[in-house]
Amino acid sequence: MGSGDGTAKLLSGTDVAKEIRNGLTKDVVQLTDKIPNFRPGLAIVQVGAREDSNVYIRMKLKAAEEIGIQAQHIKLPKSTTEVEPAVNPADIVNAKPNSTSCPQENTGDQQSPSHLEQTPRRIFQLLMKLRKLNDDPDIHGIIVQMPLDSDNPIDSHLITNSVSPDKDVDGYKLHTLGNETHSHCTCYLAGGEVLICSAGVAWAAGTGCVLVVIVQLVEERGKRYLGKSGLGRDWVDETTGDTAEEASAAGFAGLEDMASLMLSTSGAVGGRPALNKGTLCFHSLGRGVALTTAVVDSGLRSLGENLNAVNEGRVAVGDLGGFLPCTPNGAMELIKRSGVPIAGSNAVVLGRSKIVGTPAAELLKWHHATVTVCHTKTKNLEQQTAKADILVVAVGRPEMVKGSWIKKGAVVIDCGISSVPDATKKSGQRLVGDVAFEEASKLASYITPVPGGVGPMTVAMLMKNTVLSAQRAASKLTSTNWGLYILPLKLKTPVPSDIEIARSQEPKDIFQLAKEVGLYPTEVNQYGHKKAKVSLSVLKRLEWQKNGKFIVVAGLRRTSSCGLRRVFGRLEGGLVSFAVPELGDTRCITPTPLGEGKSTTTIGLVQALAAHRSMNAFACLQQPVPGDAPGSATEEDASPPPVCKDSWPTLSLQGLNVSSSPQELFLFTFLVREDFRLPSLWRLSCGAAGGGYSQVIPMEEFNLHLTGDIHAVTAANNLLAAQLDARIFHEATQSDEALYNRLVPKVKGKRAFSKIQQLEKVAPAQQFVKAAQPLQLVKAHPHQLTARTALSLSPELRRLERLGITKTDPEALSTEERKAFSRLDIDPNTVTWVRGEAHPHIETVIWCGLTLRIHWASGAGYGDRDPALGGGGVLDTNDRFLRKITVGQSPTEKGHARETGFHMSVASEIMAILALSTDLKNMKDRLARMVVGLDKSGKPVTADDLGATGAMTILMKDAIEPTLMQTVEGTPVLVHAGPFANIAHGASSVVADRIALKLVGPEGYVVTEAGFGSDIGMEKFFNIKCRNSGLLPNAVVLVSSVRALKMHGGGPTVTPGIPLKNVYVEENLELLKQGLPNLQKHISNGLKYGVPVVVAVNTFATDSQAEVDLVRKVSSESGAFRAVICSHWANGGAGATDLADAVMAACSKPSSFRFLYPLNLPLEEKIRVIAAEMYGAGNVEIDAKVLHLLQEYTRRGYGDMPLCMAKTSLSLTGDPAVKGAPTGFMLHVKDAMVSVGAGFVVPIIGEISMLPGLGTRPSIYDMDLDTETGEIQGLF
Q: PANTHER family, from UniProt (predicted)?
């Protein structure tokens, strides 16, 4: 420390600032090393083009570049308004501005109601730009350059506080203290003299600094012009008593940094700086006084700067976690560099401006100094300053503080800068601070020079704030703790119905949940307050992030039913407790009508992981489609259909602790005949939302429209179907020349192909994965777009390339080339794509007593493929008369009628494409490849040949984004896609999995489902979905129950309306043993992929301890990693904590995942491998016509696609009546089809009927909407 006897040490801001910048450069490098492609981002927003502001901005940009900050300069024109008129500009022009629209620092006036209330509705322009920057994850700091050089009034205070406090790296902003007026003036410098023509920016030759050359005070009573030395000495704020020097002190500090930059960037003539002019902005100080100064320095701002309201409040209450104002913080940094203890010292701050004095005092106070703030009304000022161990001066009066005012050994921080006459200088001027330096340095221990003291620190602290903001953002990105707010459960016994539980739990606002899991506002598109779409841009932002653990929940075989709930009804005059199974998604052991509860287990597991084990955990579910049911089931059907939709809403016995006697326990399934009447007070739950205290909420929204993805699939299907039939019609009714002229019309006498926007080129849709066996590749085929053409050319040019025509000028095509281009020559008998209903909507109906939701749509024809029908369209209502229809009957179609039909919307290939696409470009490529039929020469005709690719992609652009929802405990769920599990892979989307795996981070968990049992759903999940996504699971959870295993052991048939047999509600170890081979087979199936298998056993109250122990014992002996008893249906996540622990332990083991078959294996051999390994078949019988199809598919290039086996989900065999785990049986393959866009071949075992019909009494009779409350009645 200096002795105070003339040896005061200089606190060089220049040296410290350089040191800080060097340290920041290293910090940025560390950030980039930690997160590849991550750089701190700074946005500087400028309105207008003031030259003084430009100089200041260039200085910031240069500093940012040197440090490694990605800075962008956003320029808005002078015409920019705070608001833009939405209707009538004249109304706004004539509107009276609010004279007190901005809070005033000096008067303390309160802000009156916004002037927006006095004008017509407006659209914010500048504020919208700031909002986008606030939400931009790549921007970590925002500076609004002041003053705002606009021709229109702008509330600067509103603009200041519109910057997010988390990005307000300025720490304070310049704001007008009233309504701004503007004046323009010019200043020229010649021979070292300031020639004032009006004032602007000038700088004195030889001094290398900017001078304040004029200040203009405009009073209500007139004007007067003051000299070069700054503000008039006689000007005093009438409210605070601050002099002009105090009010503008910050404006005169630290100009040397900017001056040197200005000199270095401006042209000089004869050794002098070039002449320059600038624009001045008048700021009303209230009471009719306007003040203007030309000062723009290196960070201390002009008069009128202020803290952001939030950050100002933080400093005032001692919360220094926000961004601190740059100049006071720079002064504090210099004080710390002196080594003098701040805590306990006496600190005096001379000046109370909101730019330097006030925040400096607050910072000193919260560093535990005893602080005295002095101002113009302070008495005995010299005595006050003489007590200071630390003296901070910011008054704007040159050399005001004399040596006699300073305590010996004090630390002196001089924040002022002024110009005083100096005949020894070439310019006649020199810069001084507010402290008489020569005198003070004899007493002080440390002192800041002027220039070179506080000034250089300002920009350095600005850059430090920006890097600090980036570090915080990076820390948030890499944080492994979400800080999830958990919704408490109020458990009841007996467990209420699903809808009662769902409606009793108030969900968190979806925006809050999104923030908790690390999503940014720009990545969330809210659909109300309870659900939101998640942008795929999060994948780009988190591309560096390692994936979390991936768990797939599968089953043994599907039951046709799932969870039970208790309801009471009257039967034969007596009050009876019925066990009414819940509608939901159950893919567990080989399914039985008694249900195992896979969706409920999925949700319960995630609730346990997130809510009870404090792990980041996501559930990824399919969008429930309760109405997508097999078409063979009609009101007359008395037996289950051969196959069921992946999320088929069935009735089951999942998870209920049954306390009633066997005589009181009844099972009601969709197998009921129409003569069995369901009591009107019973309501059934729908979809794959789980059940009990492990379900997704809000239940109604989850099971109805959700966010409209199925409607988008419907619309895309309808578009392609309409274009297909229209093209067939037009080709049949027009000549070659007429057809070509209409397809490529002349516009203003010139013919040209479509000029669509050229998009980024992409590689073929080849998906690579890492596996234990040699790398497998989903290869391209002859009809797949090449890397050169994919998405980058118009549909016409892509068709020309496929035809081998290299010409791009439509006039240059020969007659034969024009014909080949124009005519697709589609054979109507081969069409596999037809129209659906023009307007998608929902009809909630009942089919054989079952509540369903069906969508109108149109789509690919799967199964029952009558060539005369051209496959099946799709729709979402149970209309039996649309199973087979005739179209084209109108006279306008000129006799071109044909037979066709409808299937379910989720059976559309577009739904499968939605689920398998990795991003928007990949989806577009897949849509283009879809084969809709063959031409008359037997060549495939694609959607891209019809020119429908771009339009379908537009319809699907929002559907590609998954929907964020939550469980009853507030844990996150992504809901997306719902492909038919028989003819498609039956799993949620790849993009949902990818997003969730990034958000949970490397220590988190993502739990998703595989459709049906392990033999169908899990097999397709691994061999189709995992191959496409490259995402490999860490563990498999198999769901089972004692009752279901008893049915597989030969238990009696469950008959609708009849009490359950005693064997299902009493201990029967022998029957259970006979059913356990089914469980063992599914465990074996999982182990074939090299993944640990955890068995989840959902228990009932009637399960004995011996039965449960037997299931666990056999599971372990069969190779299961662990078998766990679960009660999440009744207890929520708390009932699945043991399962969560087992899953976490399994995921910690190394995985040796392998695919079941290589892709280069012939299609026929792939069928045999799946049949033998997954089903236990002894042989496979393939019809001759199927063998011919497989050979044709191979010839066309589809032989290297994976298989998507279509068979019953109710048995390991092709016969749904066969239970248990039979072996050595014959599997009969009756048909085959190919989904070129989705990328798999579908061998068909058995009949797949695709459209249900209505029963005699649909449940619409029991449904209504309460028009007062908006509550749905009778749906569940």
A: C-1-TETRAHYDROFOLATE SYNTHASE, CYTOPLASMIC, C-1-TETRAHYDROFOLATE SYNTHASE, CYTOPLASMIC-RELATED
